[in-house]
Amino acid sequence: MNSPKKPASKPKKKYRKTKEELNAEGRERKRESKHRGNKSGSRYQDKSSSSQNNGQNNIVDPRLGSKKPVPLIVDDNSATKPVVEKKQPVVKEKLTPEAELALLESDDRLDGLLARLEDGETVTAEEQKYINTCLDRIDELMNILGIEYAEEEEEEDEEKLDDIMRILKSK
C-alpha cells in the first residue's frame, strides 16, 4: 500500500519583531551599557571596611594632601638655611628735561596717534588721554628749557608781513 506521504516540513519563516519589541531590546542594551565603572560616591566611602586593617581603626581620607610634617617651632637647624633676600624695587632714574623731551618726541605711539588725528580718524578716550598727557608734558618741558614753539614764531612773522603789506597797500 501506498502510504500517505507526510507533508514536507515547511521551512520556518523568520519572525519579524514588532517596533515595540525592538524598542524594548534597545532600552535593555542601553541600560546594561550604562552601568560601567564605580558606583556613585565610591570615592568617599570607607575603603577600610572592605579590607582588613590588622586591628587598626585609622580612617584614611583620600582627599587629604601631603603627609609631610610641618615644623611648628623654629629650630636652629632651620635658621642655617639660606634666607632669600628681598629685592628692592628698581628706582627709575630721573631723566634730564632734554632727555625726557627727546624720548617724548621720538615716541612712535604718539606719532601714530597724531597722524591718525591729522587724517581725520577718531581715537578712543584712552588714546586721547595718552595724547593729552604727552603733549602737556612736552609743553612743560619746553617751558622749562625755554624753547618756544616754531609755529608761534611763524605766525608772528606772518602777522608782521601782513601788517607791512597793509601799510604798503594803503599808501
Automatic annotation (TrEMBL):
InterPro entries: YihI. Residues 48-58 have a biased composition (Low complexity). Residues 135-167 form a coiled coil. Transmembrane segments: none annotated. Residues 7-17 have a biased composition (Basic residues). GO terms for biological process: ribosome biogenesis. Pfam families: YihI. It comes from the Bacteria. Keywords: Coiled coil, GTPase activation, Ribosome biogenesis. Residues 1-81 are annotated as: Disordered. Residues 18-31 have a biased composition (Basic and acidic residues). One of its GO terms (molecular function) is GTPase activator activity. Interacts with Der. A GTPase-activating protein (GAP) that modifies Der/EngA GTPase function. May play a role in ribosome biogenesis. Belongs to the YihI family. This is Der GTPase-activating protein YihI. It comes from Providencia huashanensis. The lineage of its organism: Bacteria, Pseudomonadati, Pseudomonadota, Gammaproteobacteria, Enterobacterales.
